[in-house]
Specification:
Layout: E1 10-16, H1 22-29, E2 37-41, H2 49-52, H3 57-60, E3 70-71, E4 84-85, H4 107-115, H5 123-133, E5 134-136, E6 150-154, H6 160-171, E7 187-190, E8 192-193, E9 195-196, E10 199-200, H7 203-211, E11 217-221, E12 224-231, E13 234-242, E14 245-257, H8 260-270, E15 273-274, H9 276-281, E16 288-289, E17 301-309, H10 314-319, H11 321-334, E18 346-350, E19 361-366, E20 382-389, E21 397-399, E22 410-412, H12 419-436, E23 445-450, H13 458-467, E24 469-471, E25 501-503, H14 518-536
Parallel strand pairs: 1-2, 1-14, 2-11, 5-6, 14-25, 15-16
Antiparallel strand pairs: 3-4, 6-8, 7-18, 9-10, 12-13, 13-14, 17-20, 17-23, 17-24, 18-19, 19-20, 21-22
Helix pairs in contact: 1-7, 1-14, 5-14, 12-13
Amino acid sequence: MKSTTPTQSAYDFVIVGAGSAGCVLANRLSENPEVSVLLLEAGGADWNPWIHVPVGYFKTMHNPATDWCYLTDPDKGIKGRRLQWPRGKVLGGSSSLNGLLYIRGQREDYDDWAAVGNTGWNYDAVLPYFKKSECQERGADAFHGTGGPLKVSDLRLRREIAERFIEAAKAAGIPENPDVNGATQEGVGYFQQTSYKGFRCSTAKAFLRPALRRNNLTLIKRAHCQRLLLEGKRVVGVEYHQGGQVQRVRANREVLLSSGAIGSPQILQCSGIGDPKHLSEVGVECLHELPGVGENLQDHLQIRLVFKTRCRTLNDEVRHPLRKLAVGTQYALTRKGPLTLAASQVCVFTRSRDGLERPDIQFHMQPLSADKPAEGVHPFSAFTASVCQLRPTSRGSIRITSPDPGVYPSIQPNYLSTEEDCRVAVDAIKVARRIAEQLPLAEVITEEYVPGTRYQSDEELLDAARQYSQTIYHPAGTCKMGQDTMSVVDDQLRVHGLEGLRVVDASIMPVIVSGNTNAPTIMIAEKAADMIKASHGVTCGAA
């Protein structure tokens, strides 16, 4: 991919972050050849071959060449542990190192966004943008499209343990659902993933690479945004650091901040936009008061249950040298096999207890096990059934600790800090065990390895949830869309009280969606691009 230094001092639009949202914006806004677009990315090119092999997240996560390698503050809700929070620092952002899982969330998620004053964000309004992005392997229907650049495919791998898990979930009363992104989310079925013919389909590959053929789009890699440039209450440009030099570039129309749920609030705070008291404490002059910047942090916390089995799982296939060689050969020749594996095979959306109106928990079933995600597998046959609460009520924060943009912010998730979240965690473990007790799964399980049957009472199960849980890598909500005093952007994603600045990424979610966040983030960018074009009278010219 081409990368240049600025050939001009100003562009119509300056996009900060070439991740899941930024690549979409760059493509859609540069469709008109009369509009100039600059895309800044703090990371480098997506040349690492492991980015493009679906299972390559084992190599790219926690790798400083491709990952910001964030670390949370100690969190008392999970026994004072600090969790690694991978975020993509490469073209494509987290879409270049995530688990490839394509999940949109529930209709009610978006209807609820609209119900609190975010006009145009109800499900019927956002569905066309999901379809616009999508090139669905199964074909087009009322819920899916085939004309978009984002390839969405069925898994290219089936394993006995996964089939047994599906049948056990059905035996536990959970309906089979072949399309959890269709008419209803509830049920059990196989995940779909953002891949094509055995390769990852990141937003860099789907959206950015084709757009870079246009002369009106400029990409600058390894350009770390330091701060936004303000003139009064208008954002007029960006200051960034590249190759030991500080550069400035102006935006004639708008700056579009797409640096994610951690990066976007950090840049705003370093620019003097945020809570005056907090900014004063860290030595940053407050130029625009917005107390909600960095607040409202939400994430999906997964409780990981591991079951040993008497039937072979992927643990057996990938730890033996000769079998590993066979796996590599299979992928090289056919683009099939374990190397095409997304982060999970089977998904379950269900209720943690009776009486709930809609699913509130999600399972990610993997036909393998490890001490931590993206680490080496266990030396025995086993599978993992991790379960997360879809709409946690706990809220955390992202807050800078220094005016230096190179210093990572404080990340405090505040996991399991509400009574409701604790109750759902306990009930979710019970649902996992109920599935494991059903045939034909029960007949191949030899032991509950994690957390173990010694945890039985509700108090003990909550203790297990605090101890055996990990992030599922879905930070969101830190630049909340809304109209209340803690909102950061309006329903057009314009930052309240400022001109020339929008935030376009997962940070604008008022409430986290009920599922994986990558597909919704791409949808947000698709919708934002149309809103931006409309507000500036920009039409789509010849690409």
